[in-house]
Specification:
Layout lengths: L19 E3 L6 E2 L6 E8 L11 E7 L2 E6 L3 E6 L4 E4 L16 E6 L2 E6 L4 E6 L3 E7 L9 E4 L4 E5 L4 E5 L4 E6 L14 E4 L2 E4 L7 E5 L5 E8 L19 H7 L4 E9 L2 E8 L2 E8 L6 E4 L13 E3 L2 E6 L15 H8 L8 E7 L1
Parallel strand pairs: 1-19, 2-23
Antiparallel strand pairs: 3-26, 4-5, 5-6, 6-7, 8-9, 9-10, 10-11, 12-13, 13-14, 14-15, 16-17, 17-18, 18-19, 20-21, 21-22, 22-23, 24-25, 25-26
Amino acid sequence: MDILLGQGCADDKNIDKHTVWRLNPNDTQLTDLKQIADSIYLVPLETNDSCLIKKVHSLTYMYNHFYINNNQIDIQVYDGEGNFLYGTAKHLGSGPHDYLSAMSFCVLGKDSFEVCDPISLQVCTFSYPKGLVDKWRFPEEVLPIMQYEYLNQDTCVFIDGINLKFYSRSSQKIIKELKGKHKVQFSKTSWALHKQGKSLYCSDIFPSNELYVLTEDLEKKLVLQLDFGKHNFSLMNLSGDFAPEHYYAYMDEHPEYAYPFQKFISDDRYLAYFQFEGKLCVAFKHGKDGQTFLFRNESYSRHQLMIPHHVDEGKVYYAAEPAYLPFVVDTTLMSREDIDRMNRVSEMDNPIIVVYCLR
């Protein structure tokens, strides 16, 4: 089975009509968080010399804990109030109980998680308070790796940006590969894999209108198909010698296209982020047949809804830099306690987790 990357809305008559979400990007309005969220609360991450965050590469919230991938260097763990608990920085190195890179990670339990280290061709298991307790290796044929996630207890899914590789830990080999068949690449605009509950969602890292769920029989099931009509973008529009580093210039020269970014389905809420006419936009609806709201972010305007770091159970999590915090919240949706907490934030602090409770 091939992965179809960068396609516009398919003309496949077999697609369930409830899967298609038709959007007119010309109908966007200035972002109004009250139409999307019932409430907003803040979780400032503790700041001290043991847990300085350079960049939030990825974030997961489970077991009332925040797991932060800090710039692909270390994994930091905070409780639900933002208090720093522990991290893996002391294991960064070349020793037998160390790792060289933290490309991606998977949470296994409340105080245990794996870190994928493609430089060393291994996945390291950390358990608090013991530290690195185990590791398993994978062959070079799995490389390159951009992200990995578990489909089930035995099967990992590795993605290199174009191809999906299903790897069996028990067999220690790739048991299936879904290859992309397009020849032209665009720059990365989306994460390829994200897990919500027991469902593992898959989307192309390039602008594409499709969102899939990976099934236990190692196939992709289409669960969402965006349709922007005449504004659909396709990689087929690009010449064969297109250079991915020119994607910014291409998007500036062709603002008439809607360029899809992240897409989410969470507790029957649908979110789709895209760029249109140079603006970051978001589509939101509750239920397959619910009313669609289309919003756009304007530069330096209040309020904005940025591409989240994590979405689950009807909540959107965004790690905001302190200086940008006032632009991504609506104080009318916040408690007095959270407003006071925001006013105490310093620009030298770690990021603040903004949690939007979706309507």
